[in-house]
Amino acid sequence: MNFDDLFLPRPEPPGTVVLPYTGDQASRYGNAALERECEAVARAPAGTRNHTLNRAAFNLSQLIASGHLTPDLVHSMLTNAAIAAGLGPGEIQATLASGHRAGSATPRAVAPLEPLAQVHVLRAPDPAPATNTDHPDEAQDEAHEEPAGDVEAWVHTALPLLDWYELWDAEDDEEWIVWPIIPARRLVALYSPPKVGKSLFMLELAAAIAAGRPVLGAPADRPRRVLYLDFENDPRGDIRPRLEAMGYEPEDLEGLAYLSFPSLAALDTERGGLELLAAATVYKAELVVIDTVSRAVAGEENENDTWLRFYRSTGVRLKAAGVACVRLDHSGKDARATRRLREIR
């Protein structure tokens, strides 16, 4: 299929939400799923657009395979939404093809929706000012109903189930970046009291991983791109002398993308998580190192809520994108409190 032939007229500038007109080309279930996926793609922030488009293509191709949508409709509407998001034609075609191949192999079985037409669920009302002047304190925000078919479509699209058969058929073993301490696609905390050499140790690991050199006596399978966020060390006074002492020259470090005192939003915020994901995507990182994470968050380092927000804003985004992360951490001023938090987590 030539995706250029499926392009619709160029939409409004990036950020405009493009909703599909489906007519009779889709079932009610397919139509609802297509509308939601197009909205998600068109609104995807920078750094997440390819991932969002690939996921949308996968989900909708499952519905193509089960007869709820037609290929031309899905490819046309996703292409239009991706252009609205700011992706280029070549990028769009490759991502759609990848998602379509994977989704087509696993058709999604959908229960008939007609019996659900009479079922409704309550949704929280939109806030509105009181209009009854005789009884100003009387609630004016009665809940209204929403068809359950739309809810079911959203659940299947946004919260797809893990396919047990696909999981059991996978023959690949756990992948390690550095065995046995840094697994691929996982989050790792390197924790110790301050000033004991965490940064020096992690720099040596990161440089070796990026250069494809042996790590801790074990041979490397290949070089891997590493994105290093350094909030601690001076490039000339600390980083260069250390790397020279390890035997590295600039040509050895092309795989080590190093950000010195980066101006990122706090990583326990939504904005910070999106910015780091964007950087990891642009620099094609397989591993992100945060040195030291307590300097990259806005919340109190001895508060468990800070690290819950960090995980929800940043950690889960990196895991979903298949990027491993090592965060260097220390006890701060209250070592006992921090140790208790580590035990909780």
Assign the CATH architecture of the largest domain: 3-Layer(aba) Sandwich
CATH homologous superfamily of the largest domain? Answer: P-loop containing nucleotide triphosphate hydrolases
Q: Strands of the largest sheet, in order across it?
A: 5-9-8-6-7
Report the average pLDDT across residues.
78
Indicate how many domains the architecture comprises.
2
Number of strands: 9
Order of helices and strands: HHHHEEHHEEEHEHEHEHEH
By DSSP (H or I, 4+ residues per run), the number of helices equals 11
Strand content: 5-15%
Radius of gyration: 24 Å
Distance between the termini: 49 Å
Shape: elongated
- Content-based structural category: alpha/beta
Provide the CATH top-level class of the largest domain: Alpha Beta
CATH topology of the largest domain: Rossmann fold
What ranges have pLDDT less than 50 throughout 5 or more consecutive residues? Answer: 1-24, 111-148, 333-345
Fraction in helix:
40-55%
